[in-house]
């Protein structure tokens, strides 16, 4: 492909279809935030039912004692929004001389990748076919580092306290059901 204004060849960026791509790092583009979608069924089960069962006695006790305040509790709307994670488009020259683009989700140390590093990327296709594949693992063959980017998940967004409340809520519901069947 030739640019008509400058008569210089322009390289077209392609999305690789292979599971493993090896090449030289051309450029890390500017990162941007993307939101993890949280499914309604997950939130309804965890927040409204199970965690609500544990909160009910605490709420009743607070009303009886007259102490107000919401504490650190997050609203359903805040939980539904989901966590954000960093998406960094990565371009590299593959073995065939093509300029390929992939997405790096999460954070890596700044000193982990430099322009010209020889990389081996393990990729996974994304749900949206228009998006480039996502990097699962990076092996920097220049430095010998193995890098695995980590992103926020739905479970890390909900947090251990809410998940613990949900588990206690399930146990409470099961205990009440067992007592009801025995008596």
Low-confidence stretches: none
Please tell me the overall pLDDT: 77
Largest sheet properties: 8 strands, mixed
Report the C-alpha radius of gyration, rounded.
24 Å
| Percentage of residues in strands | 25-35%
Cα shape: elongated
**Structural class category:** alpha+beta
The beta-strand count equals: 8
Helix content: 25-40%
CA-CA gap between termini: 80 Å
Return the string of H and E elements: EEEHHEEEEEHH
Helix count, per DSSP? 4
Task: Please explain how this structure is put together.
- The protein has helices at 40-65, 76-81, 154-158, 160-182, and strands at 13-14, 20-28, 32-35, 84-94, 99-105, 118-124, 134-140, 145-147.
- The protein is an alpha+beta fold and 183 residues long.
- β4 and β5 form a beta hairpin.
- The chain starts with 12 loop residues before the first strand and ends with a helix.
- The mean pLDDT is 77.
């Amino acid at each position: 492909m030739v640019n008509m204004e400058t008569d210089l060849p322009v390289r077209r960026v392609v999305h690789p279809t292979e599971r493993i791509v090896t090449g030289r790092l051309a450029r890390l583009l500017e990162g941007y935030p993307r939101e993890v979608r949280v499914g309604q069924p997950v939130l309804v089960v965890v927040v409204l039912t199970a965690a609500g069962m544990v909160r009910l006695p605490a709420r009743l006790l607070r009303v009886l004692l007259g102490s107000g305040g919401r504490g650190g509790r997050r609203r359903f709307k805040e939980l539904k929004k989901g966590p954000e994670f960093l998406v960094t488009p990565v371009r590299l020259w593959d073995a065939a001389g093509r300029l390929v683009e992939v997405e790096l989700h999460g954070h890596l140390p700044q000193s982990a990748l430099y322009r010209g590093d020889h990389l081996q990327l393990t990729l996974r296709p994304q749900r949206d076919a228009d998006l480039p594949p996502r990097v699962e693992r990076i092996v920097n063959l220049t430095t010998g580092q193995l890098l695995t980017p980590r992103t926020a998940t739905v479970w890390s967004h909900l947090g251990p306290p809410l998940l613990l409340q949900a588990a206690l809520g399930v146990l409470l519901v099961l205990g009440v059901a067992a007592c009801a069947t025995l008596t």
